[in-house]
Automatic annotation (TrEMBL):
Classification via InterPro entries: MFS_2, MFS_trans_sf
Alphabetical list of Gene3D superfamilies matching this protein: MFS general substrate transporter like domains
Similarity annotation: Belongs to the sodium:galactoside symporter (TC 2.A.2) family.
Transmembrane segments: 31-48, 60-80, 101-122, 128-152, 164-186, 198-217, 256-276, 282-301, 378-403, 423-446
Name of one Pfam family that matches: MFS_2
Keyword annotations of the record: Membrane, Transmembrane, Transmembrane helix
Protein name: Na+/melibiose symporter
Signal sequence segment: none
Any one GO cellular component localisation term in the record: plasma membrane
A single MF term (Gene Ontology): symporter activity
One of the GO BP terms on file: carbohydrate transport
Length: 471
């Protein structure tokens, strides 16, 4: 029955959706305020992945093997925490709502653990680092997963959800830009001062945390709670529920491929610019340039999504990424002009797929609620978060061993031409193939604007119709 309902909805014509009156647009000021918490959350991403391991190894004496083990365990813990938090948030019923209370509590855990992580006044031991990271990832999940679910609930409109995700993408990109700039400035004033660099990044996170939490929690009211909380799901049943949702699995697989391509490029970027191009002094600047243009990319792709629809815009963005990465094959050592042009283009295309796919998760959650009566929005977003984290880990696990197998040695002052050619091929073809896979996976996605308009109409009608049993 549910399959028949959804099939009918997906066959709805575009004219039917166009006949639906457009909703009131969410106020830009409130959207910006709601997106504020993305700043400290995104600002934590770059230090954890790039700076913290090196600083703890060089300045606090934590062995590299121990660091690798601790960060691996904590990433696994973060992936486990996401669906737990998502399920609990979906089931929460309180007078403060079911998203706001988790975000506020997560902010307290996140802030306290960030203070201990970025300002280790009593030194850093493996036990200390493991416990602090445990709390840090827990607080991060408590903020991020309910926030993403709430993002899909403040508007039920197909295009407005893209707009909500766009504001968050821009705020998150701005945070990453700040985190890239600050360590660069520290290196100019106090070269090699790891603790100062750590404190500056942690200071940005802590200074922005409380104001951003206040802005986010006050920006919009939470939607009314469902008449009944979502049924409690054992872990195995939750896995089967997610795996059986073909639309969600397509989005997850597509997002995994997007993030894999982005992180293969990010992992090898410094090696490529320094070793292959022979321009080590340009590595940080080009990486920064990409992020600067990436901030302006969100609104551009939002407009494209309005015109083409989310899945078509995602396909277009991924194909642009394929072309840009294939263009890198024609870059010769020392040829800065073409590399700058491709880096700028990469910035404009950056996040196109992530933006559309994130918005599509809420649409799939609506289809699931219509078919089953269960609201699993936060659970779906938590699994979406796992796919991103898994892809980030896979990128490092694929790219670095592969270029090493091809003969590239980052510590060598002069790699062979064959080794450098291998680095170029992985740097260019790896992301190109990943972005192509992402486009193929989401091509022809059936839940378009027309189908979603019918789903929302059915949900709104059901939500406003009195239950005859209760009556």
């Amino acid at each position: 029955m549910a399959t028949a309902i959804n099939s009918d909805l997906w066959r709805t014509s575009g004219a039917a959706a166009a006949a639906t009156a457009p909703p009131d647009r969410l106020p830009p000021g409130r959207l910006l305020a709601f997106s504020a918490v993305a700043l400290p959350v995104a600002a934590a991403q770059m230090p954890l992945n790039v700076y913290l391991p090196a600083i703890f190894a060089q300045h606090y004496g934590v062995p590299l093997a121990v660091l690798g083990t601790i960060f691996l365990i904590e990433k696994i813990w973060g992936a486990i925490a996401d669906p737990i938090i998502g399920t609990l948030s979906d089931r929460t019923r309180s007078r403060f709502g079911r998203r706001r209370i988790w975000i506020a509590a997560g902010g307290a855990v996140f802030g306290l653990s960030a203070l201990l992580l970025f300002f280790p006044l009593w030194g850093v031991t493996p036990l200390y680092l493991g416990l602090v990271l445990f709390a840090f990832y827990l607080g991060w999940s408590m903020i991020q997963i309910p926030f993403l679910a709430w993002s899909g609930e403040i508007s039920h409109d197909y295009n407005e959800r893209t707009r909500v995700a766009t504001y968050q993408l821009v705020v998150g990109s701005a945070a990453l830009l700040l985190v890239l700039v600050l360590p660069t400035l520290v290196d100019q004033v106090r070269p090699g001062d790891g603790p100062l660099k750590l404190g500056v990044m942690g200071g940005l996170l802590l200074v922005t945390l409380v104001p951003s939490l206040v802005l986010t929690l006050r920006a919009f009211p939470e939607p009314p709670l469902p008449e009944a909380p979502a049924q409690r799901l054992p872990f195995g049943k939750a896995v089967r529920l997610v795996a059986s949702n073909r639309l969600l699995m397509r989005i997850l697989a597509s997002d995994f491929a997007v993030t894999l391509g982005q992180n293969i490029r990010g992992t090898l970027f410094v090696f490529f610019v320094s070793a292959y191009m022979g321009l080590p002094h340009w590595a940080s600047g080009l990486f920064l340039l990409q992020f600067i243009f990436g901030i302006s990319a969100g609104p551009i792709w939002m407009k494209i999504g309005y015109r083409l629809g989310k899945h078509r815009a995602a396909v277009a963005g991924e194909l642009v990424q394929v072309a840009i990465n294939l263009g890198l094959l024609f870059v010769m050592p020392g040829q800065l002009g073409l590399l700058v042009a491709l880096t700028v283009a990469q910035g404009f295309a950056q996040g196109s797929g992530n933006l559309m796919l994130r918005s599509m998760v809420a649409d799939v959650a609506d289809a699931h609620r219509l078919a089953t009566g269960e609201d699993r929005t936060a659970l779906f977003y938590s699994v979406f978060s796992i796919s991103m984290k898994a892809a980030m880990a896979a990128a490092v696990g694929i790219a670095l061993p592969l270029v090493a197998w091809l003969g590239f040695d980052p510590a060598s002052p002069s790699n062979s031409p064959d080794a450098l050619k291998g680095l170029l091929l992985v740097f260019a073809l790896g992301p190109a193939l990943a972005h192509l896979a992402s486009a193929v996976l989401v091509h022809g996605f059936p839940l378009d604007a027309a189908a979603h308009a019918r789903i929302r109409a059915s949900l709104d009608q059901r939500d406003t119709t009195p239950n005859p049993i209760q009556a």
